Amino acid sequence: MEPPPLQTARPTFNDALVSVVVPAFNEQDNLESLHARLAATLRACAPRHEIIFVDDGSRDRTLEVIRKLAAADPKVKYLSFSRNFGHEPATTAGMDHARGDAVVLIDADLQDPPEIIAQMVERWKAGAQVVYAQRRTRAGETVLKKATSAIFYRALDSISEVRIPRDTGDFRLMDRAVVEAVRRCRENPRFVRGLVAWAGFRQEPLLYDRDARFAGETKYNFRKLLRLSFEAVTSFSLLPLRWAMQLGAAVVGVAFLLLLTNVVLHIARGETLGRGFDYLACALIFLAGLQLLMLGVMAEYLGMIHRNTLARPLYLVAEQRGFDTPAP
Question: Which secondary-structure segment (H or E) carries 169?
Fold first, then answer.
């Protein structure tokens, strides 16, 4: 679902509109505190602003809380999906409907301090077109979570065809030109922070200390993080396909050398590297596993092509409020 093209003209900074997009899935206990801190920060640094909550098919009272916030604050707008479509489509929906000259993405768990937005706005006014928050420390996370995140970001940075900054999430401010560039990318699955990096423009980091989650539990368990990792890698790198081909070539080379060695030993001394069914079985199992591995890599890319060929919408909105009123 994509609204009509938005106005891209950039007004004077004193008259600029700042949109804040907040994807939320089962975050009922965090939203009131988040809204209070967002509103206080934005009143000081961006008097013209809008806060867009995107309810990603929550099963708790998230939508009910958002409705109350929207009824009490005219600057609050919201979208509610027909079901859970995922964090990346929810972020995309907020960007599609944001009307700001600058758009800020922030999660609803309050791990990313809303007060940082004031510094992002100042960097934007100074000329930066993307200000991405880069984590200096990560409170409230286990050693395993920190280690796996560090491995993921460094591995992705090393194999990606575009430079994706390390230790960053979706928390960032984007100029309208960047938002429009990212909105033109409708692939599914999607990796928004990778798309922002791919878009280019003038990007600057902003170091900060990440807080512990305010309430509730993280929605990104190990399975979801692993899925996101696969999607990020396959969206921004062809190296897995090249590695599969190179590994296949290496196995063929090793097999040829073993065959040649066996022939030479047989001719010279009447010996072989081994005999019996065990060697043959091990070789067949190894080759079968290698073939399945390479097929799996190719299937991942083929599945992405298939999903995008279907051309289904990234999300479906069941309820919305505030988007038919003039910009604040």
Answer: strand 168-175
Segments forming the whole domain that contains residue 274:
239-310
203 and 263 part of one domain = no
- Yes or no: say if 231 and 300 are a contact pair by the CB < 8 Å rule: no
Distance CA 317, CA 309 (A): 22
From CA 43, how far away is CA 37, in angstroms rounded? 10
Element (H, E) at 225: helix 222-236
- Do 192 and 254 belong to one domain? no
Q: Got the DSSP string for 96-108? A: HH---SEEEE--T
134 and 262 both lie in a single domain? no
SS3 category, 27 = coil
Look at strands 18-24 and 49-55 and give their pairing: parallel
* Angle between helices 222-236 and 192-199 in degrees, nearest 10: 30
CA distances from 244 to 227, 262, 283, 291 (A): 20, 27, 18, 9
User: What is the per-residue pLDDT across 108-153, written as a single tens digit (0 to 9) for each?
Assistant: 888 888 999 999 998 999 888 999 888 877 665 666 666 666 666 6
What is the spatial distance between Cα 289 and Cα 85, in angstroms, rounded to a whole number? 34
207: helix, strand or coil: strand
